[in-house]
Amino acid sequence: MKITLISTATFPSDQGIRTISGVLKKSGHEVKIIFMAYSEDYSKLYTEKELNQLLFICKNSDLVGISSYASTAPRAIQIIKFLERKIKVPLIWGGVHATISPEHCIKYVDLVCVGEGEEAILDLGDAVENKKSLDKIKNLWIKKDNNIIKNSVRPVIDNLDELPFADYDIQDHYILEKHNLRRFREEDLAGQIFFLTGRGCPYGCTYCSNNLFNKLYEGKCKSVVRWHSTDYIINCIIFLKK
Hints:
globular, alpha/beta
């Protein structure tokens, strides 16, 4: 199945969407990532020209995912409204903002992913590909017949080594630069790769998104803080270096 993932982050270091892509590719799906990198003046939205270029890349997709922070949520909404008028495929909104504010996101899209999305996106891809019901997929909020189905979150992934490496295969990646969407190049990484060796935070400060994450997964994990093994980290660094 052909899946397109869109990041609205201001810099192409979105680890979450790259990990989602890695999981999908491991399961045999064709995945494109589009980094709609834009100004940190968050009042600025995409132009019609930029959105039409985005549409051209997305037009043959069977499923489209959009990721955003709260700061870039208006841009995610703009993309969703534009694409839903042009292509008739499922659109799902995920990422930090979708987890923190699903009530806001579900107003604009029929599918919202709450929490860690790796297993949820695999279930969604399988359901879409095989024309199965989406209604009971955990981690998903689903707008259906003027109702909202709010499925519970599944337990976190305890063994992070089960995950494939984040997707840095830039051959199928695109980035917005000076109002044009072009193929991603190694230099777009600016000489650095963000690499997470674990997940979770033990503190949950009230001003931080981890406060909500910790509450969301209370009773659904052995520990909210999880680490990759040393071997996984070393092998990933060697892989990225190559």
